[in-house]
Structure formats: structure tokens, C-alpha cells
Amino acid sequence: MKGRRGRCPRQHSVDIMAKPALPSSSARTSVLSLKVTLRGVRPPVWRRLLMPGTMTLGDLHQAIQATMGWRDCHLHAFDIDGRQYGDQRTTDDIADENRLTLSGLLKSGIARFGYTYDFGDTWEHAVAIEKTQPAVNGSSYPACVAGKRNCPPEDCGGSWGYQHLMAVLADPEHPERAEQLEWIGEEFDPDAFVIETANTMLAAQFKRIPPSANRPFLD
Total domain count for the chain? Predict the structure, then answer.
């Protein structure tokens, strides 16, 4: 596949391309629970999302970016049963991710598939459709209901580069430590994950009010 994107700019705030607001959950009967896990990183980095089945792979891409903490400045693709889906505006020789819904996947018998972000660093994610469950009346979707750990910094060199970065930062005497700290540009906590922040980013992405911090989340 060929694409037309470069490196992420070294900044920590990005413009969000908001999606149209969705109707309230009273207009839908069920949502899909999906678990997204970053491959090649230990301890695991993962998120659990609740999404209406009417949403597309394009919507799932935006939800993954928002909740994982990626900045959507690289190419991406879904790998589903050997076929690649993505954004046809930026990637050649790929099926349109906006024409396939999550319910359509489930009806086709697809419950597990892959998602790759950044064809240079090659961040591979495993996506599992865990179950269908009733929508909660008055709740907004999509929503992040659980997760663990921070996603790696953009452009750090993939899983190997990330492991090396963590080893450097953990050693106060390492000769590369000062350089790497300057490159990151801020305090990086690999264990950090705040579900309220994930849902705020998700709400901004889909142009709606984020769920209350008092809402009971599922583990």
C-alpha cells in the first residue's frame, strides 16, 4: 500500500476532525463491546469500547485514535480476513473503511481482526468484538469503558524502539537519557491511563458531551 502522510509534528495538541453527533441511545437497541489491544508491548496497552453497530470501520479508527492517545498523523489500515480497509483519500489500493459497518462484520462471522497505525513504526492492534449488549437509555456512544496503560510516544520506532526508550528512561546514568527526555518534551508515564480523559477525547472526536465521571464503567 502507498500513502501520503509523514511524521507527526512535535507538539502535544492536535486539531480533531469531529464526527456528527449521534442520536440518544433510546433510538438504538444494542451496542457492540470491542477490546483493542496493542501488540508487541508488555505490560499490555488496551481499551474497551462500546460502539453502535451502525458505526463504520472509519468511525472505529477515530475511536481508537482518540482513546489510545494516538494523534492520527500517520496512515492506517484494517486487516479483515485478508483484505485491507482504510481511508481511500490517503492510501492507495485499499477498500473503503466507511462502507463497512461493525454490525456488517459481525453478521459476516468476523469477530477478530487487525488494525495497523503508522506504516513506519507499524503499531499493530488486535481488535476483538466481545459481545453485543443493550444500550443504556440516555447514554452516549461510542464510549470507552475500561483500559490500561499509556500508548507509546509517536515516532519512537515501533515496539523495539519503545522498549529501548523505556530502558533508557529507567536508567538515570544512561548516556542517551537527557536526549530522550528532551525529545519526548514532557513527563511520560507509561502506566498512565485516565478514563475520563479518554472519553473527553472521544466526545470531542464525535462532537458530543462526555459521559459523567460518576457513570459506572465496566471492567
Answer: 2
Q: How confident is the model at residue 171 (pLDDT cuts 50, 70, 90)?
A: confident
Confidence of residue 101 (pLDDT cuts 50, 70, 90): very high
Kindly state the DSSP code that residue 166 receives in the 8-state scheme: H
DSSP state of 75: -
Please give the Cα distance from 147 to 45 (Å, whole number).
7
**CA nearest 96: which of 48, 59, 135, 51?**
59
If 0-12 CB within 10 Å is exposed, 13-18 middle and 19+ buried, where does residue 215 land? middle
pTM (2 decimals)?
Answer: 0.84
Q: Of 186 and 78, which is predicted with more confidence?
A: 78
Domain that holds residue 91: 25-150+193-205
